[in-house]
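User: Sequence in, structure out. Go.
Assistant: Echoing your sequence, followed by the structure tokens.
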Amino acid sequence: MHVTPDRLLFADGEVCAVPNGIHPSKAAEQALGSPAIDLGHHGVEEIHDGVSHAAVLSQPRHGLYASRLARAMEAGRSRDFATAVRAADRLMSDMAEDVEVTVPQHLETKQFRADLAYLTGDFLLATRLWTAIARSWTEHTGLHGRTRIAACNAAACWMELQRVQAVGLAPQLLDMLSSVAAPERTAAVRAAVMRRLGEVFVSVRV
């Protein structure tokens, strides 16, 4: 779940405009049918103390890796993002070389790294990671709730990109959005992406 500075609410594969005078958290409650954490102008899914809701729930169950991820998350909660990023990068590298690590365990750690990329303003990396995560969840579990959330997060991060970066990643993003969920579930998100692309091309011509 994410609210952009221009008041677009992304939630569970859906996107809608937040009316003026309505706080984003209230709009999120209406969209989801349950209370939501105040997102302000930043947040991949539900950001709380520097760690997303998905990351808090995602606890790899592989012994040492779980404790290492917990320490990285603690650094994130303390807003020591440099330490958290280094720890998450080393963890992902080590897990990639360990044949005993399952796909969900690796993806859960990658989700945390994607959150850190967003929180540190690296929207390009965040978009790429969430796009890859959505595809991987689809390959591993099919059309699953986590897939839709990852796809929505990818689109929300893409909305933060500079124009040249946004245009460059748009084909991969749109292709992912079309393949990881039933078309009607991502229609609004794809429409929002196309609207921004139209605005980019208009501004370039002007």
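User: And one key feature?
Assistant: Residues 183-205 form the longest helix (23 residues).
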